[in-house]
Design goal:
By secondary structure, this protein is of the alpha/beta class. It has 2 domains: 165 residues, Alpha-Beta Complex (Aspartate Aminotransferase, domain 1); 247 residues, Aspartate Aminotransferase, domain 2 (3-Layer(aba) Sandwich), CATH 3.40.640.10. Helices cover 36% and strands 14% of the residues. The strands form 3 sheets. It has a 7-stranded mixed beta sheet, sandwiched between helices. Strands 1-2-3-13 form a 4-stranded mixed beta sheet. Strands 11-12-14 form a 3-stranded antiparallel beta sheet, with helices on one face. Strand 8, helix 9 and strand 9 form a beta-alpha-beta unit. Helix 7 packs parallel to helix 8. The two termini are 22 Å apart. The structure holds ligand KE4. Ligand KE4 binds next to helix 4.
Length: 457
């Protein structure tokens, strides 16, 4: 059985001892006006218990809540803040931009500059369109693929999350997985008839779909490193095989790099793994913390997008000049030499520390990481797909989360969300984090029965 966390750490109900008075007051008020008191479900702490903390500000690797609690932040706004909070150069670029205006609804040079920079980092993106979210990027890329191939079906992977557009909210990861639901209400079955779902890391299953629908599949959309069922890296050869299959059957390969773009390398997962997708979805980091998304790829495909072609997609704030300014500055910093080595060093230190502590405390844990994005699964087996991810003990995870919160570490409030290390997390931050991990493991999880997931379980 789970032991209680040490006194002074968590209450009898397992929630952390930190003072949440103002957050709780604000949460009560927020619930009167916002469903669940939040603007996005996964923020509600539904998977870990207790009321969500209301943040007041962030600086560098720290965030400060409305009760004055300080946390080392590993959520980093779910990925965008690879440079941490309020990076001086990002703040300066926004101050300069805001004095010119917030939005014009016209083309600006900034869009061309950012598009050019992205294309230089990821040469497969010969042309792109900016939108305001990753959801819009993925939704538009799928529409474009259907138009280009004149086919209707799309293959996605169980546990893959590509935003909340109707056709892609099928066995999705992220908040859907966190809430333990398989799909969303309000989506007519006719809308998802053309969405084929198959297990991640199972290329044979994808091949079977292509053999079953040889001329009907427009595209395969994949997170090249799955990060919405926790971090599940691609098995060797998986992505290459997807590329071969899509080419062979005349379908497009769409890399959803909303998380991995400029995260796992400056050229994203496509550069890291040497795969050429036909289309790429981006978001998060390219906006430096402001609302953004983008989809792009082969010119012959992108030229079908209105006003050039007949694939319609539009957006009032697409290419917003402030998001462009923050994105340009962010990528400028990320393009400096040694940035990704530094990120690798920090994240590897964290991973090794967690694994070492778990071993000493005799706890089965698998840290799965690609670059500076990682997940600690409480499992003795590698998690290679959504079925295995779903069997990991989320109760253990929620205790771990509460303990980390008590020790001033803001870990993702869901086993199915990734933790992110930024360029401004210091060795001191990582040392403090590992001290919290050690305490959590020693006190709360000792003698926890081995969680061994077998593939046929
Ligand atoms: P947005 O619409 O949230 O900007 O992006 C959707 C999206 C698309 N593709 C991938 C691979 C994504 O991870 C996301 C969004 N990520 C989640 C966190 N895993 C956003 C956090 C939230 O939903 O609040």
């Amino acid at each position: 059985m789970l032991k209680k966390l040490p006194a002074g750490c968590c209450r009898d109900d397992g929630l952390s001892m930190i003072n949440r008075e103002n957050s709780e007051k604000l949460f009560t008020e927020a619930q009167r006006y916002l469903p669940g008191g939040v603007s996005s479900p996964v923020r509600a702490f539904g998977a870990v218990g207790g009321s969500p903390l209301f943040m007041r500000n962030g600086v560098g690797s720290k965030i400060y809540d409305e009760d004055g609690n300080r946390f080392i932040d590993y959520v980093c706004s779910w990925g965008p803040l690879i440079l941490g909070h309020c990076h001086p150069k990002i703040v300066a670029s926004l101050k300069k931009g805001i004095e010119r205006g917030t939005s014009f609804g016209t083309p600006t040079e900034l869009e061309t500059t950012l598009a050019k920079t992205i294309g230089e980092a990821m040469p497969t993106i010969e042309m792109l369109r900016f939108v305001s979210s990753g959801t819009e990027a993925a939704m538009s890329a799928v529409r474009l693929a259907r138009a280009f191939t004149a086919r209707d079906k799309v293959v996605k992977f169980a546990g893959g999350y590509h935003g909340h557009s109707d056709g892609l909210l099928v066995r999705a990861g992220s908040g859907i997985a966190t809430l333990g639901i398989s799909d969303s209400a309000g989506i007519p079955s006719s809308y998802i008839l053309n969405t084929l779902v198959t297990p991640y890391n199972n290329a044979k299953a994808v091949e079977q779909l292509f053999r079953h629908y040889p001329n009907e599949i427009a595209a395969v959309i994949v997170e090249p490193v799955a990060a919405n069922m926790g971090v599940v890296p691609p098995q060797p050869g998986f992505l290459k095989y997807l590329r071969q299959l899509t080419k062979k059957f005349g379908a497009l390969l769409i890399f959803d790099e909303v998380i991995t773009g400029f995260r796992v390398s400056y050229g994203g997962a496509q550069t890291l793994y040497g795969i050429t997708p036909d289309l790429t979805c981006l978001g998060k980091i390219i906006g430096g913390g402001l609302p953004i998304g983008a989809y792009g790829g082969r010119k012959d495909i992108m030229q079908m997008v209105a006003p050039l072609g007949y694939v319609y997609q539009a957006g009032t704030l697409s290419g917003n000049p402030l998001a462009m300014a923050a994105g340009i500055e962010t990528l400028k910093i990320l393009s400096q030499p040694d940035v990704y080595n530094q990120l690798e060093e920090k994240a590897s230190l964290l991973e090794q520390g967690i694994v070492g502590m778990a071993t000493r405390a005799e706890i089965d844990i698998r840290v799965q990481r690609v670059g500076s994005v990682l997940t600690a699964f409480f499992s003795g087996e590698q998690v290679i797909n959504y079925d295995l991810a779903q069997r990991v003990d989320t109760k253990l995870y929620s205790h771990f989360f509460e303990h980390m919160l008590s020790c001033g570490v803001y870990w993702p409030p869901s086993q199915f969300e990734a933790a992110f290390v930024s360029l401004v997390h210091t060795n001191e931050d990582i040392k403090t984090t590992l001290e919290a991990v050690a305490k959590a493991f020693e006190s709360a999880f000792k003698n926890q029965k081995t969680l061994t997931l077998t593939k046929d379980q």
